[in-house]
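@channel anyone free to eyeball this complex?
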Amino acid sequence: MKSLFRRHPWLVSALVLATVLTLFFAVRFAIGVVYWTKHHQEPVQAWMTLRYVSKSWDLDPRQISTTAGLPPPQHGHPVTFAEIARQRGVPVEDVVRDVEAAIASLDKAERP
Amino acid sequence: MTDWLLALVPQYGVWLLVACTFLSCLGLPIPASILMLTAGGFVAAGDLSLTGNVAAALGGAVAGDQAGYFGGRWGGAGLIKRLGSRAAPLAKATRFLASRGGIAVYLSRWLVSALGPYVNVAAGAAQQPWIKFTLWGIAGEATWVGIYISLGYAFADNLEAASSMAMELLGFLAAGAVAIGLAVWLAMAIKADRARARPLD
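replying in thread with the prediction:
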């Protein structure tokens, strides 16, 4: 092994580095999988749509839209919360807050 | 930055995928894998259609490959001639592609996707038979699209976590491919060492 390194220092170093990097990414990926299994319910954000939130939180999209006072989801025309806020001329934080409140109350009703 | 990228997907849907996979197959640094993953998530949520998005991503990618291939076919041979002896490694690569390039085309679509755009041009310049390039290319792009859209579909509940996982996966594949390449290189170097040492024994 030592003589191999002496004969091909660059090649052996590069191989060790690439192997370490491969293992590093493999470990990070595994950590990501574990994290994912424990964090299914993703916090509401501007890029999300009603259906997306309902999928993430396992709630009925129509119930969320009614409770949050948002337009019901339309087929084939997904609208992000950022877009809804823009149409209404309000900051997106307001829409996100309404959705969060709706989720909290629906979640409590379903999983007391 | 990620938020901004994620928001584009429900807004522009299939057209975004067509454009991004096309441009990324031409070698532009566009995070097409992450966009496909996000599209997979919105498909799972019921916002986007599965067939539409798969067809869009696949269509864009295959069209991008063809553009690279014909670019290499019409412009590549002249480039090699102009470069003269400096083009020796390129000529070697093109000879390899002409003879046994099918699997190289396939793997450079998804496993070492950073090489994809160069392989397209080289395959065209090497006059790899068009039908062979196209069939292996479609198979490879279908694997690429399939991996990321299903990953997004399966991990739709938390797309941000899923997209960072996809980054780790891409890093793993790239570093792994480099490690395998270096291991093969080292094995060849050791073999050459032994061949040189033998006459002295």
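from a first look: Chain B has a mean pLDDT of 86.
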